[in-house]
Structures are given as C-alpha cells and as structure tokens.
Amino acid sequence: MDDERGRGGRRGSRDRDVSWREIDKKRDKSAHVDDDLRREPRRGKSGSVTGLGRYKADLARLFERGEAGKLVQGIAKGAGLEVSGGLPERQRALRRILDAANPEAAAAAVDAFRAEHGDLPDDPEVLGQALLHPDETVLLDVLRRLHRYLAGHLVQRKALLLLRVKELEVRAESDELREWASKVRDLLGG
User: Is residue 113 pLDDT above 60, yes or no?
Assistant: First the structure.
C-alpha cells in the first residue's frame, strides 16, 4: 500500500481523485472549445426533443395547407423547369400494376406498361404483381429480373413474393420456367 501512495503515505497532486465537475470545467476552459459553446448552456435531451417536435409540427402544417406543392412549383419555375400538376404517366402505369385487384387486371396493367414504357423496373413489388401474368415469356423475364435483384438486395414483402413464386413453380408448364422459379425461391429462402 505504501508503494501506491508514494513516500510517507501521501498521494501526489496528480494522483488525487478528480470529480466529473472538475473534468467538465477543464473541458470548457480548453483552447479548442469555441466561445459560443462556452456561453451556450448545455441542453439535455428535452431541448432537442422540443426542437424536433416543433420541426415536425411545422412540416405537417406545411403539407396540410398545401403550401409544399406551391413551393416546389415556385422553385421549379425559377430554375426554368416545367411542372405538371400530376404524376408522370410512367408512375401512373406502375401504380395501376400495384393496385391491380386480380390477376387479369395485373396482366392487363403489365401489358400496357410494357407496350408504353418497355421493360418493367427492378422493383420487387412490381415484379411480384407481374408474376400473376399468364404469358410464359413475360414470366421468364420477370423471374430473371427477380433473380438478378435478389442476388444483391433484401426484400420487405418476402412472404407474398415467396408464395407467388411457389405457386408459379407448381402451375408452370415449361421446365425452364420451373427452373427459374426454383432459383428465385432458393434466393428467397423458401
């Protein structure tokens, strides 16, 4: 014990216990702390929570009044861009695919999208709806795209997608379609 305290049982000035208050005082007096930070009282979590609450309330008020659309249009006009009132046609066509109530409506929406805009996007929800299509060439394209997508991404609605792929694997007539459905099912973990 005498070895720890030095000579004569006394602690040196460096060895005395330092309180957290003293550590904070030293930190506030250090040269690298800005004067603004020294003058500004420290806020606990309650200060930041009220600021966040105020921010969310202001944001909600902006959208409730409909001022956000006017603000975006004003910025776009200032930048020399033309702004239309609604969604672009491509977005509306995708929405029709996602909102299809039955396989026939989904197939019609997929066909309309492919006719107007070309290939389907690599979106798992859109591709999942396209799995309801009766045409095997469309289904092969969808399964290949899903396989490519799933090789590098995680899917949120995995259960629904897995169910549709299993269903397709059972009802498929061609071996190639069954094989691709099996590959996609394996990537989904089913």
Answer: yes
